[in-house]
Amino acid sequence: MKGPAPLPEEPVWRPGAHVPALDGLRGVAIACVMLYHQTLIGESPSALDRAFAWLPLGGWAGVDLFFVLSGFLITGILLDSRGEPGYYRSFYARRALRILPLYYAVAAFSFLVLPHLGHPRAERFAAVAADQGWYWLLLSNVPIALAGAFRHGVMDVSWSLAIEEQFYLAWPLVVAWVPRRRLAGLCAALAALSLLWRTGALLLGAGPVAVLVLTPGRLDGLAVGALVAVAARSPGGLARLRAWSGPAALGAAAVLAAVAAGGGLDPLRPAMQTAGYSAFVVLAGALLVNTLAAPRGSALARTLERAPLVALGRYSYALYLFHLPVRAAIRDALLARGWPLTVAGSYLPAQLAFYAVATAATLALAWASWHLLEKRFLALRRFAGGAPLPARGAAPAGTLPAAG
């Protein structure tokens, strides 16, 4: 029986090294999420409009790619620093410096300033005032699940970030105490349990939004990323994963095709929330594995290392927090001024213009956030101890549908 093919010489990934292709992969994830949320074309008599509106429909699954990437990067950091002095202190300090400054700046604006600006939606922004403690504690997915709806046009995008932070409160303990040879099996078990939890929750009558945002149901992406991190640090592990990635991706694509044929790619459909979510996670994991194993100079590596994708990856955290409120503000301003929705009976020209304007505005804010706030706090990581973070650290996860 033939063993797995050897990896090409000089793959793009090496433990501890900064990998621009992973920044590019993160850029793909945030681009998918932004296109999904910025697509405003609805019912249209134009066949071209209807065909175009299909393109970003699965963009919400960019969140699964974010989860897989984050699971891989964070678990790798923990594995590479396991047993070192200050293991816990360094991890939590670095995580706090990456996440909290921008998050709390946005939260302060959303809860302390925005309701008093006389905005047409000020009443809505104030509606979650009684629940804002959950948001300050990075538990925003809990009130969203309890309400069964997204209610805040700015802060509700933090539900996926809340999942990550809840997971990473416990994960350093797991990585520190579970032997590496057993950690891969634990990751696989967590991915399977996540699917079982979603299925059981739906059978017991849980609402689709709760299934979407609660941590137990979204562990599969983080667990698959962690599994890749463990395997990549084992002799021949990445080669074995790459050998399986093709058949796994084909099977996942077949599952998604069957789910879509039964009612489309709506992320709140039961079939999508069970088999569909898992299939997207498998596809994201396969893409990650093939990115890690891609030889330097390969077509995949060159594509992901292109400057626009790498820049999107670098600014992805701010893009994630800003893109929905920017979308809503520009949309409402244009509609209030009688912006023409159709040109020659088609929404497409207006939609393409909206993509350009909303993306440019969000990028400008994200660029300012990076240079004025984020990188200044990241510079403090040198005082946290531990080894330097690869790939500029793990960016937070993307978002799914939220009110805007």
Short description:
By secondary structure, the chain is mainly α.
Which helices and strands occur, and which strands form pairs?
Blueprint: H1 20-38, H2 47-54, H3 62-81, H4 87-113, H5 122-126, H6 132-136, H7 141-147, H8 159-177, H9 180-203, H10 208-213, H11 219-232, H12 237-261, H13 270-293, H14 299-304, H15 307-314, H16 316-336, H17 348-378
Number of helices: 17
- Mind summarizing the main beta sheet? none
Distance between the termini: 55 Å
Order of helices and strands: HHHHHHHHHHHHHHHHH
Radius of gyration: 21 Å
The poorly predicted ranges are 388-404
Shape: globular
Alpha-beta content class? mainly alpha
Count of DSSP E strands? Answer: 0
Determine the mean pLDDT. 87
What attributes characterize this protein structure?
single chain, 404 residues, mainly alpha, 17 helices, globular
What does this structure look like?
With 404 residues, the protein is mostly helical. It contains 17 helices and no strands. The model is unreliable at 388-404 (pLDDT under 50). The protein has helices spanning 20-38, 47-54, 62-81, 87-113, 122-126, 132-136, 141-147, 159-177, 180-203, 208-213, 219-232, 237-261, 270-293, 299-304, 307-314, 316-336, 348-378. Helix 3 packs parallel to helix 8 (159-177) and helix 16 (316-336) packs antiparallel against helix 17. The protein starts with 19 loop residues before the first helix and ends in a 26-residue tail after the last helix. The relative contact order is 0.20.
